[in-house]
Amino acid sequence: MKIRELRFESDIQAPRERVFAFFAEPSNLMRLTPPWIRVHWAGTPPSRMGEGQRLAYWVWLHGIPLPWRGHIRAWDPPRLFADVQDLGPYRRWDHEHRFEETATGTRVVDAVRYAVWGGECMDRWVVRPELERMFAFRRVALEQAMRG
Predict the structure, then answer these.
(1) Region for residue 61 given its phi and psi (left: phi exceeds 0; alpha: psi -120 to 50; beta: otherwise)
(2) What is the pLDDT of residue 97?
(3) Which of 3, 27, 98, 143 is deepest in the core (most CB within 10 A)?
(4) Across the chain, what does the average pLDDT equal?
(5) Is 121 in a helix, a strand, or coil?
(6) Which long-range contacts does 61-70 make (Cβ < 8 Å, 24+ apart)?
(7) 5 touches 112 (CB < 8 A)
(8) Are 70 and 59 in contact (CB under 8 A)?
């Protein structure tokens, strides 16, 4: 199983504590998810996030509903948190969210280590372009949310 890595950075003009608090609110997951990828909590969403918190939702990828079960493996407000997929569309998914102070606000760094079903071709032609598109959407959605 080949582990792939992607890194995305977004510079947001808002204080780190505010940006982290936005990510810490479970309902904001839907605001950061593009409309072509539907996400719905399986049952009641958690009231707050924290280390060990279990996550359960449905993700529609290309119209196919897939369960996603995971947990928060690290929680260090307002510096970082990380989530891991336990069950879902990836063979492996480990997503670290880092929040770094900058002169103008906060740099959000998404570092993803993942493995896919279908190997190199599936990653090159389907998964990686979709992840790049999703994180581009997320950057714009986060900028808009922090302006409001």
Answers:
(1) beta
(2) 98
(3) 98
(4) 95
(5) helix
(6) 61/37, 61/89, 61/130, 67/42
(7) yes
(8) no
For 81-128, the pLDDT digits (tens) are: 999 999 999 999 999 999 999 999 999 999 999 999 999 999 999 999
- List, in sequence order, the alpha helices (H) in the chain: 16-24, 28-31, 119-122, 128-147
Q: Across the strands, what pairs with 114?
A: 4, 93
DSSP lists the bridge partners of residue 110 as 8, 97
Between CA 118 and CA 17 the distance in angstroms is 39
**How many angstroms separate the CA atoms of 85 and 116, rounded?**
12
Q: What per-residue confidence (pLDDT) applies to 48? A: 85
Of 64, 61, 81, 65, the closest CA to residue 73 belongs to 81
- How many residues are there in the chain? 148
Tally the C-alpha atoms within 13 A of residue 96's C-alpha that lie toward its C-beta: 13
Tokens of residue 131, six digits: 């992840």
The CATH number of the structural domain formed by 4-147 is 3.30.530.20
Domain boundaries, the chain: 4-147
Sign of the Cα pseudo-torsion (88, 89, 94, 95, in order): negative
